Amino acid sequence: MKTRSLALMFFFVLFVCIPSASAQTPKLATPITTPPKLLLLVHQQIKFGSEAERQKLETQMSRACDGLKVPNSWIDLESVTGESKTLSFDPFDSYAQLDQAFVGWGQLYAAHPDLAQLQEHIKSLLTSERTIIAVRRDDLGYRRDFIDLSKTRFMRVLQVRVRPGFENSFEEAFKILGAAYERINATTPWVVYQVNVGMPSPSFLVFVPMHALQQNDDLLAWRKDLRQAEGEAAVHRMEEIAKEAYESTESNLYAVSPEVSHVTKEFADGDPQFWSPDPRARREPNSPKKP
Fold first, then answer.
1. How far is CA 166 from CA 27, 179, 201, 237, in A?
2. Which SS3 state, helix, strand or coil, does residue 157 take?
3. Engineering a disulfide at 141: which of 86, 192, 226, 248 sits with its beta carbon 3.0 to 4.6 angstroms away?
4. Torsion angle, alpha carbons of 20, 3, 196, 77, to 10
5. Strand 203-210 relative to strand 154-162: parallel, antiparallel, unpaired?
């Protein structure tokens, strides 16, 4: 991609494709529903024509896990833009917990071979699968503690590959952006993760949770306010960083699929009608997803 086009894409993603500042009243989320310290992300490409079957099997898997003490929870994200794919968003507190989940799933599959067979059937419907582990960057992002994943219906995901040696430039750009958000008192939070394994380094992921797509209605007017808050010097610096520091960027929109997800009872209590419309299906506490 040409550097000028890359710079324009970067600004389009950050200044146009993020919801309006007036869309919601800020409210602190509970620790259970805020973005985790560690993310296991599983990208799955589904065979053409197998989407419905995969949805059915994954729903069966989730319901089967309702009655078991599974090692972790997960949120299933279905692609709205880009290629037809799914993204499993699995929260963890640490690598130690992730290690326990790997052991736990092995034990669970050994004790329940029907569950293991179901998982193998799901994998047979895939054309590709990629697993990424990313660590939350608390020095970047904006008002992370206001993100309530239990009320998220759509997730915009910005993937940025940075040229080696330019990590500091990426950090500078997002600190400039965060400061501008503060100046206009924007109420749309976002969180940044740095990929630890699973992608070429250095790579970053920016997650922008949305309750509804209609939050995007007045973006153009708000974009102007944000650029004014930054000032011309900061905007120019952001353009420079986009040109010199970014190898590639990609932004995609995903929709949350509660039927295919598996979350804890405490998490589902944030919006029980969405996550557990049937009270009998309320889940017992557990931890993240099948590695």
1. 34, 20, 11, 14
2. strand
3. 192
4. 40
5. antiparallel
The answer to whether residues 125 and 63 belong to one domain is: yes
pTM equals 0.85
Beta bridge partners of 74: 262
Cis omega (within 30 of 0) on the bond before 202?
Answer: yes
**Element (H or E) spanning 132, and its range?**
strand 126-136
Residue 141 and residue 27 share a domain: yes
CATH number of the domain that 125 lies in? 3.30.70.100
What is residue 285's predicted lDDT score, i.e. its pLDDT? 39
- What are the residues whose beta carbons fall under 8 Å from the beta carbon of 261, sequence distance 6 or more? 62, 73, 74, 75, 76, 275
Q: Residue 272 is part of which domain span?
A: 38-134+257-281
Q: Which of 153-157, 214-218, 242-246 has the lowest mean pLDDT?
A: 214-218
Distance, in Å, from the CA atom of 151 to the CA atom of 80, rounded to the nearest integer, reads: 18
Residues 8 and 151 in one domain: yes
Domain count, the chain: 2
Q: Verify that 125 and 183 share a domain, yes or no.
A: no
Q: Are 19 and 219 in contact (CB under 8 A)?
A: yes
What one-character-per-residue DSSP string does 13-30 give?
IIIISS--TTSS---PPP
Average pLDDT over residues 166-192: 89
Q: Are residues 103 and 153 in the same domain?
A: no
Question: What single-letter amino acid sits at 230?
Answer: E
291 inside domain: no
Residue 129 lies in a domain: yes
Residue 286 included in any domain: no
